[in-house]
Design brief:
Helices cover 43% and strands 17% of the residues. The chain is α/β, with parallel strands linked by helices and 374 residues long. Helix 1 runs antiparallel to helix 7 and helix 4 runs parallel beside helix 5.
Length: 374
């Protein structure tokens, strides 16, 4: 698919400008010398609004859709220390929408990190005693809350990003747009990455990148793309990635294609939000070599996977490597994160940062390489 055709498909979607784009693509000179590779960082931590991160791109399309539907409020859900919910609270402020957040956890959660920012930005917060992000009870509660708001005269926009939902497809489309941006930057920099790493939670960021890369068939098309799972294990994540990708392809009117990619569950640890010693070591290394701030929940684990692959020889000397820094710095500013960063090297057991998903306690070590033909 041509670049202009893909841009035209994206331009048909409503978009509310929130992010400072394009985000930089920067060479990491110090780490490149130390690791004997050519490392580049896509700085999606620098999207600008309220500590930035990859969620701001997604909310441009979600807020655009909400405004087109004349919504008066945005209603969404995620974990207690969710980057998406913090970004949604900020986006709502900019767009003049009331924001309501259903967070997995309890009212006993310490008011720090993203929770503090949610309050500061004026979002209404309710908690649900549930750890599974895919639990039917969460969606049922959201629907009931939406009806409650309609009865009060509000017009809620439900941003539930799972499955083949329109909201999920719009969020994924944001990273098709990011793939276009990244392709153009690789061309200007004169690089052709052989490996690319990105943290994977729900799977929409990875799905959008895959769809964009495969559609353009440019400098990233031959890269080994690695999604590093930080929550659910690869067998759970893989079908979610395809759901997002296929729904977004339908939305844009393009073929649902993807290059070969890998899902790496080796860095997840006991569960979502649980810092591992490898993640903590990668955070220290990135900070001290490049002043690059990663977090124990997402980017620290993704960077740990990259470092492990260099150590194992999967990434060879001199090869060009792309790391997508999806952000999430507020996750550093919690008591448990500080404790993990200071003490985890002296402890055998990982230390909880945002609360583990207790239904998935087993340590993940497998790597699942997937390909799907259409």
């Amino acid at each position: 698919m041509s670049l202009s055709s893909l841009k035209q498909a994206l331009d048909l979607l409503q978009r509310y400008r929130l992010a400072s784009l394009p985000t930089p693509l920067e060479p990491a000179h110090n780490l490149s010398r130390e690791l004997n590779i050519d490392l580049w960082i896509k700085r999606d931590d620098l999207t600008g609004l309220a500590f930035g991160g990859n969620k701001i791109r997604k909310l441009e399309y979600l807020i655009g859709d909400a405004c087109q539907q004349q919504a008066t409020m945005l209603l969404t859900t995620a974990a207690a220390q969710s980057n998406f919910c913090r970004a949604a609270a900020a986006a709502g402020c900019k767009a003049g929408l009331r924001v309501a957040l259903l967070l997995r956890g309890s009212m006993d959660e310490s008011q720090e990190g993203n929770l503090l920012l949610n309050r500061l930005l004026g979002a209404e917060v309710r908690f649900i005693d549930e750890s599974d992000p895919y639990a039917e009870t969460i969606f049922a509660y959201l629907l009931a809350w939406a009806e409650e708001e309609r009865a009060r005269g509000e017009r809620p926009y439900l941003a539930y990003l799972h499955g083949g939902s329109r909201a999920g497809a719009l969020a994924t489309a944001a990273y098709v747009q990011a793939a276009i941006e990244l392709e153009e930057q690789c061309h200007v920099a004169g690089i052709e990455p052989k490996h690319a790493y990105v943290a994977v939670g729900s799977g929409s960021t990875l799905a959008g990148l895959l769809l964009g890369v495969a559609s353009l068939r440019g400098r990233l098309a031959r890269a080994r793309i690695v999604g590093v799972c930080v929550g659910a294990l690869p067998p759970v994540v893989e079908p979610k990635v395809w759901e997002f990708l296929e729904a977004t392809a339908t939305l844009l009117g393009i073929s649902p294609v993807a290059p070969e990619f890998a899902l790496d569950g080796s860095q997840r640890g006991p569960g979502y939000g649980v810092a591992t010693s490898a993640a903590v070591a990668s955070i220290h290394r990135a900070a001290r070599r490049e002043a690059l701030l990663l977090n124990p929940v997402y980017t620290g684990k993704a960077f740990a996977a990259l470092l492990e692959d260099v150590a194992r020889g999967v990434v060879g000397p001199g090869e060009t490597v792309l790391f997508v820094n999806t952000g999430g710095e507020p996750l550093l500013f919690t008591q448990s994160a500080r404790r993990s960063l200071l003490l985890a090297r002296e402890h055998e057991e990982p230390i909880s940062v945002t609360g583990a998903c207790h239904h998935e306690r087993a340590r993940a070590t497998e790597r699942v390489v997937t390909r799907k033909e259409h």
